[in-house]
């Protein structure tokens, strides 16, 4: 019987582009797998696309109304009995909360026993970690995720993002950008250590590649300051100086910076522009009142001051860009007036990773016409120190 360490050893020795082929050989030999297929979530998180190392396109499976989609959404293995005494196992492939896709393994019914299923779940987990490393050296998985071509601006933005989800003992994060294949200037970033979590949501003015270049400079300036170990206010100030030095105030970036103390739940916030922060505590939804300050890069040497507030275990925070809260219905009512709170209530039982997608679906049905602006939603569920 193949041990988990054998699967891990085989995947680590595999060529980056051949991970699925390697795993298929191991699972076929060890458990009599009849087929092994990897389905990758597309950029909009609406479809699961079959991976083929040769680049042959396969029919995408919708996340909604499919067994594979239910496994992806719940992050729990799903079992599907096929004709001919065959059992299909749909296994989530994820890394620290980031949902990559689904591994589908077909087994003869007599081999589909709990011990084998546990081994397959572990193999899917190992595959997720190896995919993360392999994407540094090959484009085959990136190509498989695309159900249409990305614009150049969108390509630049997706490469800048950390992930679409992340989880730890104290928190869970989920984020989504729309339109997924043609985003311009909206972006998010996060980083954590043993003591704190830092979040940044940015919105560069303009459209297309110019907006993406502006956002790239802002995000990397913030990262550079954060990695130097300085405080949140100085991170904003240094990014502001970098942007002003390049654009002299002609272009600027709206930003919301948050620093969470993992031990206490105290939060520092620098509100430098348009992103809004909403909190759901129990069934109460409210806009967090922060101190609005100048966007990054608008003026030379702006002084930024952080405001503090507290999050409690069970709180859900939602950060939305102006493409979300400023959207209007056919009757002219802004989405933030009532609809945003309704969307939060409707999605209160969903995990943080799937809340942004649910809110953006609701937004698409609400607004009067197709938006020309990016829409960004980032959700944080706060659990506090165990």
UniProtKB/TrEMBL annotation:
PPM-type phosphatase domain boundaries: 168-382
GO molecular function, one term: phosphatase activity
InterPro entries given in the database record: Bact_Sigma-Reg, PPM-type-like_dom_sf, PPM-type_phosphatase-like_dom
UniProt entry keywords in alphabetical sequence: Hydrolase
Keyword ATP-binding in annotation: no
SMART domains: PP2C_SIG
SUPFAM superfamilies named in the record: PP2C-like
Transmembrane segments: none
Pfam family name, one: SpoIIE
Signal peptide: none
Stated name of the protein: Phosphatase
Native species: Streptomyces caniferus
